[in-house]
Specification:
- By secondary structure, the chain is mainly α.
- 48% of the residues are buried.
- The structure holds flavin-adenine dinucleotide and ligand DLZ.
- Ligand DLZ binds next to helix 1 and helix 2.
- This is Cryptochrome/photolyase family protein.
- It comes from Halomonas gemina.
C-alpha cells in the first residue's frame, strides 16, 4: 500500500481534486506557503494574501473532514521555501514513499515536477478535473485545424455539455449574442456595491504577514475584499446572479472612470483557486435564463467567457507550451512603461486602470485588453515584459490563463492563433465606451498637436510600422485602405507625433522597485 504525500497547491483548493480521492491510510495532505511562489514575479500583495488566507482556511476544512494535514507556514524555520523542496522534505519527515500532485497551472512547475517522476521519491502527476476539457481533449479537437478558433471550440463545448442547447440547437437560435453586448454605460445608471466579506483573524494575520514580507510589491492591501472560503465565494456568486447578471451582457464592454467592477462577476479568483467550479457557475447562470430571470444575451455572454474563452486559453496553453511563451510575431522589444507601476501618466484611462489595479488587484477585461493592453501593443512593448506584469498584478492571475490572453490576445505575438486580428484601437474607441475622456487633458478628437490623445497617433503609427505583417490580413483591409488614403503629410505628422511620444516614454526599472509600499492598518469593521 503506498503512503503518499498529497501536495495541494494554493490554486487547488477544492475537495474534488483527484489527488484527494480515496486516500490510502497514512496519507498526509500538505499545503505549503513558500517564498519562491510569492516572488518569482512580484505578485500584488492582495493576490498573495488571497491565496495564503484561502489555503489556511482550506487546511482547516480538510482537517474537519478527517484528513491528516501538514501546513507549512511561510515563516516556519524549517520551511525549504520552494514547493518541490518543501514537499520532499515533508515526505521524508512523514515517511511517505511518493508525492501526489495534480497538474499545476504553470509550465515551470509542471516541468519541475515531471522531472521527478522517476526519482527515488517518485512524483505522481494527476489530471486536473476541475475543467470541462482536459488538455488531451483539446489537442484532439485542435488536431488538423489550421486555425483552431475559439468560436468553433465554443460551439463544440455547448454541444458536449448541453449548456444553452434546446433539441440540439443553440437557445434563441444563435450561438452568440455579442452584437447586443457593446453598450456604453449611461451616466445615470447606478452600479451595485460588491459584497463585503467578514475579515476573520486568519485573514488579518495573513494581511499582516504579507505586508511584512511582500510590502515592497506594487499594490495596496487596504481594500482587500476577496472571498477566501467556498462559503464566501458562494455569496459572490449569488450576488452576481441576483444583482449583476441581467446587465452583465449589455455593459460588458463599458468602462467607467469611478467604478472598477461594474456588472462584472469578480468570480475569476474564486474559480481559479478552486473555491467555485466552472460547471456549477455556468449551470447556476443558465438556470437564470431557463427560469426567466435573466436575458439570453447576458447568460450566453457569460457562459461563452467561462465555457468558451477560459477553456480555450487553457487548451492553447497546455498544447502550445513551452514554445508559446517565446513567440513574438511583431518582434517588439520595448520595456514595460514605468507608468504601469507608478500610475504616473496624463492619459486618464491608463492612469485609472493602473490605479484600480493597484487598489483592488483587479481591472475588468476591457480595461486589460483595450486600455493597458492596447497601449502596450501600440507602444511595441515586448511580450515578456508585459506578461510578467499581468501575471503579477491581478488577483486571478495564473499563467495558463494570463499568457494566452496577454501574448496572444493583446499583443498578437502568437501570429494570430488567439485572435484573427490585433485588438488595436484609437482614442475614439475609449471615448465611445467610457467617460474617461471627459476627465482627461487630451482630446480624443485630435490626432496631432499638444492636446491630441496619444492613442490616436500611436494607433496609426503602429499600423504603418507593422504593415508588412498586418496589411495582408483580410480583417484589416479596410483600416489599411484608410491609412493608404491619407496624404503623405498627414501620415508623416502622425508618425512624428507618435515617435515624439514614444521617445519620452520611460521604461520601468526592474519590477517597479521602490514604486509603492503596501501598508496594512488595523482591521476595520466589516459586515458579515
Ligand atoms: P467577468 O467579466 O465577470 O467574466 C466571467 C468569467 O469569464 C471570468 O471570471 C473568467 O473566469 C472568464 N473569462 C472572461 N474572459 C476571459 C478570458 N479572456 N480568458 C479566460 N477567462 C475569461 N483571467 C484570469 O482568470 N486570469 C488571468 O490571469 C487573466 N489575465 C488576463 C490578461 C489579459 C491581458 C486579458 C486581456 C485578460 C485576462 N484575463 C485573465 C481574462 C479576463 O480579463 C478576466 O478573467 C476577467 O477580467 C476577470 O474578472 P471577472 O471575474 O469579473 O470576469
Ligand atoms: C501565487 C501563489 C503564491 C503567491 N504563493 C503560494 C504558496 O505559498 N504556496 C502555493 O502552494 N501556491 C502559491 N501560489 C500559487 C502557485 O503559484 C500556483 O499554484 C502555481 O503558479 C501553479 O498554478
Amino acid at each position: 500500500m503506498p503512503r503518499p504525500l498529497v501536495l495541494l497547491l494554493g490554486d487547488q483548493l477544492s475537495h474534488a481534486m483527484a489527488s484527494l480521492r480515496d486516500p490510502p491510510d497514512g496519507t498526509v495532505v500538505a499545503l505549503c506557503e513558500v517564498a519562491a511562489e510569492g516572488t518569482y514575479v512580484p505578485h500584488h500583495p492582495q493576490k498573495i494574501a488571497l491565496i495564503l488566507s484561502a489555503m489556511r482556511h482550506f487546511a482547516t476544512e480538510l482537517r474537519d473532514r478527517g484528513h491528516r494535514v501538514h501546513y507549512s507556514a511561510l515563516d516556519d524555520p524549517d520551511n525549504a521555501q520552494t514547493l518541490v523542496d518543501e514537499a520532499e522534505r515533508l515526505a521524508g519527515l512523514y515517511g511517505c514513499d511518493e508525492v501526489r500532485v495534480v497538474r499545476p497551472g504553470e509550465w515551470r512547475l509542471w516541468q519541475a515536477m515531471r522531472g521527478r517522476e522517476d526519482a527515488a521519491l517518485p512524483w505522481r502527476l494527476m489530471e486536473d478535473e476541475r475543467f470541462f476539457t482536459t488538455p488531451e481533449e483539446f489537442a484532439a479537437w485542435a488536431k488538423g485545424r489550421k486555425a483552431p478558433r475559439m468560436e468553433h471550440f465554443y460551439r463544440e463545448q455547448r454541444r458536449r455539455t448541453g449548456l444553452l442547447m434546446e433539441e440540439g440547437k443553440p437557445s434563441g437560435g444563435q450561438w452568440n449574442f455579442d452584437h447586443d453586448n457593446r453598450q456604453p454605460l449611461p451616466a445615470s445608471r447606478e452600479v451595485p456595491d460588491p459584497p463585503h466579506h467578514r475579515r476573520d483573524a486568519v485573514t488579518d494575520e495573513v494581511l499582516a504577514l504579507v505586508a511584512e514580507h511582500f510590502g515592497e510589491h506594487f499594490g495596496t492591501l487596504e481594500s482587500f475584499h476577496w472571498p477566501v472560503t467556498r462559503r464566501q465565494a458562494l455569496v459572490e456568486l449569488r450576488h452576481f446572479i441576483e444583482h449583476l447578471l441581467p446587465d452583465f451582457g449589455r455593459y460588458q464592454d463599458a468602462i467607467r472612470d469611478a467604478e472598477p467592477f461594474l456588472f462584472h462577476s469578480r468570480l475569476s479568483p474564486a474559480l481559479n483557486l478552486g473555491l467555485l467550479s466552472p460547471r456549477e457557475v455556468c449551470e447556476a447562470v443558465e438556470r437564470e435564463y431557463l427560469e426567466g430571470r435573466a436575458p439570453l444575451n447576458s447568460v450566453e455572454g457569460f457562459i461563452r467567457q467561462v465555457l468558451g474563452w477560459r477553456e480555450y486559453v487553457r487548451g492553447l496553453y497546455w498544447t502550445r507550451m513551452p514554445d508559446y511563451k517565446r513567440r513574438n510575431a511583431l518582434r517588439t522589444r520595448r520595456g514595460l512603461p514605468a507608468a504601469f507601476w507608478s500610475g504616473d501618466t496624463d492619459l486618464r484611462c491608463l492612469r485609472r486602470a493602473i490605479e484600480m489595479t493597484r487598489d483592488h488587484a483587479y481591472a475588468h477585461h476591457i480595461q486589460r485588453l483595450m486600455v493597458t493592453g492596447n497601449f502596450a501593443l501600440l507602444c511595441d512593448v515586448a511580450p515578456e515584459a508585459l506578461c510578467d506584469w499581468y501575471l503579477a498584478v491581478y488577483a486571478d492571475a495564473c499563467e495558463w490563463v494570463e499568457l494566452p490572453n496577454t501574448l496572444g490576445m493583446v499583443l498578437h505575438a502568437d501570429g494570430g492563433l488567439m485572435g484573427s486580428k490585433p485588438y488595436c484601437a484609437s482614442g475614439k474607441y475609449i471615448d465611445r465606451m467610457s467617460d474617461h475622456c471627459r476627465h482627461c487633458r487630451f482630446d480624443p478628437k485630435q490626432a496631432t498637436g499638444a492636446d491630441a490623445c496619444p492613442f490616436n497617433s500611436l494607433y496609426w503609427a503602429f499600423l504603418e510600422r507593422h504593415a508588412d505583417t498586418l496589411s495582408g490580413n483580410p480583417r484589416m483591409k479596410l483600416i489599411y485602405a484608410s491609412l493608404r488614403r491619407m496624404s503623405d503629410d498627414k501620415r508623416a505628422a502622425l508618425r512624428e507625433q507618435a515617435e515624439a511620444f514614444l521617445a519620452r516614454l520611460d521604461s520601468a526599472p526592474a519590477y517597479g522597485q521602490g514604486m509603492h509600499r503596501a501598508g496594512y492598518e488595523a482591521p476595520r469593521e466589516t459586515t458579515p
